[in-house]
Specification:
Bound molecules: D-MYO-inositol-1-phosphate, calcium ion
Strand content: 25-35%
Radius of gyration: 17 Å
Order of helices and strands: HEEHEEEHEEEEEEHEHEHEEH
CATH architecture of the largest domain: 2-Layer Sandwich
Structural class: alpha+beta
Organism: Homoserinibacter gongjuensis
Number of domains: 2
Largest sheet: 8 strands, mixed
Number of helices: 7
Shape: globular
Strand order of the largest sheet: 4-3-5-6-7-8-9-10
Pfam family, one: Inositol_P
Catalytic activity: a myo-inositol phosphate + H2O = myo-inositol + phosphate
Keywords: Hydrolase, Magnesium, Metal-binding
CATH topology of the largest domain: Fructose-1,6-Bisphosphatase, Chain A, domain 1
Cofactor: Mg(2+)
Helix content: 25-40%
Length: 265
């Protein structure tokens, strides 16, 4: 079943990404703000999500959908789709070619503690990179199988992270980054959590951590990173959650989590 779902996920992500890229070429403006003045949505976010929902509903009317812009719609099949129509909206708004359509299919409710990811696609149409994975089927960039980078000591590790839209939380996150920076090769804030996770999956990054991610930010990238040999988890033995997510080669995640704990993450 995962293979069929993956084919559908891939087809929808490609079509949605092409629409996002076309709207970007035509010009993009802020349509509204959400949780804070810096948390923006464009008309394209909404239009792309509508397209994705229409394609899912046409192909699999019994499935549930949770999308960032359109919320939750119930289903009866026990399968849920997690949709981030444009992950990296701020990059998209500014014309930085680092944003993605992120679509995942999971068995169970849209709760990272209980779901089983079945298939996922993360597509950056600006540079035509499509990352995919099906459960137990490996992770791919296009047709190429991908693997997490070999473990390196933390002082040689390139670590990505991201920041919340909430000013108070951003302040804490920035202070933590300042304490982490002397211990690692360097830090990246690339602006698109799904691309951070697939960046771990194909060895562009040694690790990634973030607080306050939503299920649609990480569902697809989480499966792709795991299928590429990474660990993706929350604190200790917990599943990834809004509270915390960390990803990387198992021998990088261990020391990184320990260090983040020491630094007061
Ligand atoms: C955001 C991006 C960003 C991450 C934020 C997310 P959006 O998603 O993934 O990298 O740091 O936590 O909210 O709003 O661009 O879909
Ligand atoms: Ca997002
Ligand atoms: Ca988004």
């Amino acid at each position: 079943m995962s293979t069929e779902l993956l084919e559908l996920t891939r087809a929808i992500a490609l079509e949605a990404g092409q629409l996002a890229a076309q709207r970007r070429r035509e010009g993009v403006e802020v349509a509204a703000t959400k949780s804070s003045i810096v948390d923006v949505v464009t008309a394209a976010d909404r239009e792309v999500e509508e397209l994705i929902r229409a394609r899912i509903e046409a192909a699999r009317p019994q499935d549930a959908i949770l999308g960032e812009e359109g919320g939750a719609s119930g289903g009866t099949s026990g399968i849920t789709w997690l949709v981030d129509p444009i992950d990296g909206t701020v990059n998209y708004l500014y014309g930085i070619p680092h944003y993605a359509v992120s679509i995942a299919v999971v068995e169970g409710d849209p709760d990272p503690a209980g779901w089983t990811p079945l298939a996922g696609a993360v597509f950056n149409p600006a540079i035509d990179e499509l990352f995919t994975a099906a459960r137990d089927g490996g992770a791919y960039l296009g047709e190429q199988r991908i693997r997490v980078a070999d473990a390196v000591p933390l002082e040689q590790a390139l670590i990505a992270t991201g920041f919340s839209y909430d000013a108070a939380i951003r302040g804490e996150q920035g202070a933590l980054v300042a304490r982490l920076l002397p211990h690692v090769r360097d830090i990246r804030r690339l602006g698109t959590a799904s691309l951070d996770l697939v960046g771990v999956a194909n060895g562009r990054l040694n690790g990634f951590y973030e607080r306050t991610l939503n299920p649609w930010d990480h569902a697809a990238g989480e499966l792709i990173a795991r299928e590429a040999g990474a660990i993706v988890k929350g604190r200790g033995a917990a599943s990834p959650s809004r509270e915390f997510l960390i990803a990387g080669h198992p021998d990088v995640v261990g020391p990184l989590e320990e260090l983040l704990d020491e630094l007061g993450a």
